[in-house]
Specification:
eight-stranded parallel beta barrel, TIM Barrel, alpha/beta, 14 helices
Length: about 300
């Protein structure tokens, strides 16, 4: 693109991306994001493991002292906590969300704030949860289309939490199968995400694997996924990264796991080409000093 013909909003968007990729955190084009949206998405039960983390000041301090690239949260935490230290850590404002109380059979996250809110607060990017494959995807994609349009107008990068969900997804094996995660990566790229947050594709349990195989064997086009069940975790993750194209891939940590497991998982994801990680519970469910130490190790891994 000719810079002379670049729209002001496009220039602002590039500056916002550079802010997270190069100006904050470890720089060098890598991302380490600390999310604190779990209170809405999962409920306060996530704070039993570390009661101190119930106070968002805990995560804010960790994000700043740990040199994270950004903090991701909903508008209430952004206005009541982040705004007081907004110059110290970039904000990704999550503009939609839902509780864990209803079934995920027809998963959909309505708006909880707006792109206008993100711009008013001085956010660096906007986060949006898209449930790929849900029966509610018509509403979801239409809502995302409007959010993306407003992001373009304000020069805000769009970070899509691209999660396979719904009855149809489970009938095809599982939401964390390689087929599902790979599809979610491609969808995020094609609908205009600048960055996509994905779960790591998992090897399925025997019960789910049988259902998965039955689905894959129905079409010639899906049979190659059967062979990939025998591939290494790194190879499977590499395929997902490639499916996302020029959209940057950041990987979710999910529920808290042990140190060795988290480090091993992170290492093969880095080798597979991910841009970074969105580690929440795997960081702030640890005591503060342990969380800082784990942050340091993940940062060093990304910089190798």
């Amino acid at each position: 693109m000719n810079v002379k013909n670049e729209k002001p909003s496009e220039s602002i968007k590039k500056k916002n991306l550079d802010k997270m990729l190069y100006k904050h955190g470890m720089g060098k084009g890598k991302l380490l994001i600390l999310p604190i949206d779990q209170g809405l998405e999962h409920g306060p039960m996530d704070f039993f493991a570390n009661p101190e983390a119930k106070n968002p000041e805990f995560q804010l301090k960790l994000a700043i002292e740990g040199c994270y690239s950004a903090l991701a949260c909903h508008i209430g935490i952004a206005e009541k906590y982040w705004a007081e230290q907004k110059d110290k850590i970039p904000l990704i404002l999550k503009v939609n969300g839902k509780t864990a109380i209803p079934s995920d059979d027809e998963a959909f996250s309505p708006l909880t704030s707006t792109v206008e809110d993100a711009a008013r607060l001085g956010a660096t990017a906007v986060g949006y949860t898209l449930y790929v494959g849900s029966p509610a995807q018509d509403r979801d994609l239409a809502q995302l289309c409007q959010v993306r349009k407003e992001c373009v107008e304000h020069g805000l990068p769009l970070v899509v939490w691209s999660y396979p969900r719904g009855k149809a997804v489970q009938e095809k094996g599982d939401r964390d199968s390689l087929y599902s995660v790979d599809y979610a990566a491609r969808v995020a790229m094609e609908v205009g995400a600048d960055i996509v947050k994905l779960n790591i594709p998992k090897k399925l349990s025997s019960e789910k694997l049988e259902k998965y195989k039955m689905f894959l064997e129905k079409k010639e086009e899906t049979k190659p996924y059967l062979e990939l069940e025998n591939a290494s975790d790194e190879e499977r993750m590499k395929r997902v990264v490639e499916s996302a194209g020029k959209t940057l891939v950041i990987v979710s940590g999910g529920g808290k796991v042990g140190d060795e497991d988290l480090l091993a998982r992170s290492a093969y994801c880095v080798r597979a080409g991910v841009t970074g990680f969105v580690y929440g519970r795997n960081m702030w469910q640890r005591p503060y000093k342990e969380a800082l130490e784990m942050t340091k190790q993940i940062r060093q891994m990304l910089l190798k």
